[in-house]
Backbone:
């Protein structure tokens, strides 16, 4: 409803009120009631909620005007307003594709998107409101096949971030042509054939065993080096001890041993039969000194 239509409606209402006032209070009441009934029946207003846009239709023809959030007036019978949701929506889609090494790949992806608010009328005119099944799901399928074909099955796992970004960029470019903006894209899961999955598990197991063997070898090598170092230190200690032993030190040790024997002697000579010299340990050596 443009300003001229609103002005004409106001003028008609004003004229009816003035005419009713001339005819009397009863006629005025009847006219007011009639206006209220017509007003409520035709509902010449529309409310656009938060995160929505209103598409104006004149006898079914989409207009260039897009109504923002709030209350708007429309021309009854002539105009109709279709509500378009422009909030961020989420689409989860399963897609089947093949990798560059011809492995079957089944993936589940999540896409966050929204209709470009200023182009809500174009989307309504060209796609309608059920555009997810018509545009978004097929676009995801196509992008998944195109991007997966660039990577091997193993790279789809190891380079997941790069794969996800490539898919997001492709989808954003495709959907923007339909006035649909991509907010976020993520790969929920990848799944492969049973044979390939078992091969990956076997490879990972082998890599883990090889890593464990390498660590064990390094540990054994370190322990051996520690033992060699300890043996060298002990040998060097013995060498130094032998180098410090002199003849005087040997004689001193003998004297110390004799003195300890004398300290322990109780003064009783041993009884010896059949003649012979009386043994006395170390006496001769003591006299020499």
Residues:
């Amino acid at each position: 409803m443009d300003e001229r239509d609103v002005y004409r409606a106001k003028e008609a209402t004003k004229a009816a009120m003035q005419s009713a006032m001339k005819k009397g209070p009863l006629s005025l009441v009847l006219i007011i009631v009639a206006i209220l009934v017509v007003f409520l029946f035709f509902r010449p207003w529309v409310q656009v909620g938060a995160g929505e846009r209103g598409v104006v239709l004149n006898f079914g023809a989409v207009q260039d005007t897009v109504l923002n959030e709030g209350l708007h007036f429309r021309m009854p019978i002539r105009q109709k307003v279709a509500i378009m949701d422009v909030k961020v929506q989420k689409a989860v889609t399963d897609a089947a594709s093949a990798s560059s090494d011809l492995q079957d790949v089944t993936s589940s992806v999540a896409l966050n998107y929204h209709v470009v608010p200023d182009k809500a009328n174009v989307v309504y005119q060209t796609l309608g409101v059920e555009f997810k099944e018509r545009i978004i799901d097929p676009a995801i399928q196509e992008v998944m096949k195109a991007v997966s074909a660039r990577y091997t099955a193993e790279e789809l796992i190891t380079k997941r971030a790069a794969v996800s970004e490539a898919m997001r960029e492709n989808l954003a470019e495709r959907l923007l042509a339909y006035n649909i903006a991509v907010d976020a894209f993520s790969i929920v899961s990848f799944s492969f054939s049973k044979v390939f999955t078992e091969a990956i598990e076997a490879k990972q197991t082998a890599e883990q065993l090889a890593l464990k063997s390498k660590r064990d070898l390094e540990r054994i090598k370190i322990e051996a080096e520690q033992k060699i170092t300890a043996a060298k230190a002990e040998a060097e200690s013995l060498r130094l001890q032998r180098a410090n032993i002199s003849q005087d030190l040997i004689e001193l040790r003998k004297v110390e041993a004799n003195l300890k024997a004398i300290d322990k002697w109780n003064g009783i000579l041993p009884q010896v039969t059949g003649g012979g010299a009386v043994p006395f340990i170390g006496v001769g050596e003591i006299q020499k000194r």
About this structure: The first strand starts at residue 45 and ends at 48. The two ends are 138 Å apart (CA to CA).
